[in-house]
Amino acid sequence: MRDIYLFVSLVLTAMLLRYGLMEWVYTDDVYFYAFSETLSDERIGKLLKTRKEWAWLGFALTPFFYALKIFLASACLYCGLFFANVKSSFATLFSISLRAEYLFLLPIAMRLLWFTVIQTDYALSEISSFPPFSLRNLLGSETDEAWVVYPMRVVNLFELAYIFTLAASIAHHFQTGFLRALKLVTVSYGLGLLLWIIFVAFLLINQS
User: How do residues 55-71 score in pLDDT, each as one tens digit?
Assistant: First the structure.
């Protein structure tokens, strides 16, 4: 029952942050400035109208998105522990993944706070590249190809923090060493994440 409350809290917080970003960060002025050189004002207006009309769909899909994301992370961990001969239940791993998922609310909250309080004059590209804790920000990239940018943005500080949090939780729950737990998480969840990155990159290449 506690996990249900945590999941509802996660979804509601994510939806509130998403609403804040839509209302106060991704404003109409930002889009007009970003596309004014390539699209007419009328065309931009129509795109913004369509965006607002379909905004409800993003909110409606939020619970399903998090349920699927946590389920897949739990499945990766379950497979890793199974092959490592560590007895575990899927419900336990789902609970661990659920709690760790709260970490990913931090970059959303940071983006909202930064562009509403600290940097109030910004461009659309600056929002997309924030927060600056990814491999793309660290190494830089001369290309804007989506299939190159996406993997470099996925590898970020929060993803590493998520992996370490999973490892710490597994080490505590299963009474095993942290380094062993970290290895299990890296091999299981890390492999799942790598396959996901390859899958998305493949789709982006076909769209380009």
Answer: 999 999 999 999 999 99
Count Cβ atoms within 10 A of the Cβ of residue 80 and give its class: 0-12 exposed, 13-18 middle, 19 or more buried. buried
Quick check: helix, strand or coil at residue 101?
Answer: helix
Can you tell me which residue has the tokens 């190159």?
148
Q: Give the residue extent of every domain in the chain.
A: 63-207
68 burial via Cβ count (<10 Å: 0-12, 13-18, 19+): exposed
The Cα 63–Cα 167 span in angstroms is 25
CA 85 to chain centre: 30
The pLDDT-based confidence of 141 (bands split at 50, 70, 90) is low
Instruction: Report d(CA 86, CA 125) in Å as an integer.
Output: 45
**CB-based contact 147:201 (threshold 8 Å):** yes
Residue 201 contacts residue 150 (beta carbons within 8 Å): yes
Pairwise CA distance, residues 170 & 164, whole Å: 10
156 strand-pairing partners: 134
The DSSP letter of residue 87 is: -
Concatenated DSSP letters of 117-174: II--S--HHHHHT-SS-BHHHHH--S---HHHHHHHHHSBHHHHHHHHHHHHHHHHHT
- For Cα atoms 113, 110, 135, give the angle at the middle one, nearest 5 degrees: 145
Whole-model pTM? 0.92
